[in-house]
Amino acid sequence: MQESHNRVQWVYSSSSNQELEERYDEWAAQYDKDLAEEFAWNAPQTATELFAKHVPAGSKILDAGAGTGLVGECLAKLGYRNIYAIDLSLGMLEEARQKGLYKDMRQMTLGEELGYDTDSFDAVISVGVFTTGHAPAHAFDELARITRPGGFVVFSLRVDLYEEGGFKEHQAGLEEDGQWKLAELSEPYYPLPKGEPDVVHRIWAYQVTA
Ligand SMILES: C[S@@+](CC[C@H](N)C(=O)[O-])C[C@H]1O[C@@H](n2cnc3c(N)ncnc32)[C@H](O)[C@@H]1O
């Protein structure tokens, strides 16, 4: 495995979902320690604080790309209990399972059809997943489908990818089609201030309308 200070770049550079899955499987046991100590990863806190302004406790929530459950931990501190998790990597989900945060965990791939019925959730949250070499913009179609009308889809997104990775057009397309409308957009912030000080995110909150 790569040295810890290179592991974010290492997962960004995966050439396929299979390679990405293998790299996260390999990283899983060290992920929480690295993200805290080497990168000062703050996106779970930033995203869940914004999420809580829109989504009441008691809501049925999907943590999409839950990883080891850092977002679930923040949600639990805010009083949320009805949380489900999906992720590409079973190794990451196994770390999350040990924390006892989620009602159910399943391996699924964002960008492909998700194994949930339409309108299954009150809200979806996805942090650190819409980033270089990870989930594509068209994954939002399925996240909007499985969220009930009036519910929320909240996610972090790299600012450079929004402009250049097809996200701007896809997000606007869903709005023009009447699938969702923007409820809140955070100011830009630095999610990895220690190890990757040039990376900038914003948190997007959309309300599903159809
Ligand atoms: C940077 S980690 C973020 C994990 C967690 N949300 C957090 O904030 O710590 C990215 C996670 O997304 C997962 N992932 C990447 N691409 C994915 C995809 N297309 N579908 C589902 N999960 C994916 C990875 O396996 C990994 O667990």
Please characterize this protein's 3D structure.
- With 210 residues, this protein is α/β, with parallel strands linked by helices.
- It has a single domain (4-208), classed as Rossmann fold (3-Layer(aba) Sandwich), CATH 3.40.50.
- The chain is built from 8 helices and 7 strands; from the N terminus they run αααβαβαββαβααββ.
- α2 crosses α5 (90-97).
- The longest helix has 23 residues, at 17-39.
- The model has no long low-confidence stretch (mean pLDDT 96).
- The protein binds S-adenosylmethionine (SAM).
- S-adenosylmethionine (SAM) binds next to α2, α3, α4 and β4.
Count of the separate structural domains = 1
- The geometry reads as globular
Strand content: 15-25%
- How far apart, in Å, are the first and last alpha carbons? 44 Å
| Distinct small molecules | S-adenosylmethionine
Annotation keywords:
210 residues, alpha/beta, Rossmann fold, seven-stranded mixed β-sheet, 8 helices, 7 strands, globular, binds S-adenosylmethionine
Would you spell out the secondary-structure blueprint of this structure?
Blueprint: H1 7-12, H2 17-39, H3 43-52, E1 61-64, H4 70-77, E2 83-87, H5 90-97, E3 104-107, E4 121-130, H6 139-146, E5 147-158, H7 159-164, H8 167-176, E6 180-185, E7 201-208
Parallel strand pairs: 1-2, 1-4, 2-3, 4-5
Antiparallel strand pairs: 5-7, 6-7
Helix pairs in contact: 2-5, 3-4
Bound molecules: S-adenosylmethionine (SAM).
S-adenosylmethionine is lined by residues 17, 20, 24, 43-44, 65-67, 70-71, 87-89, 92, 109-111, 127-129, 134-135.
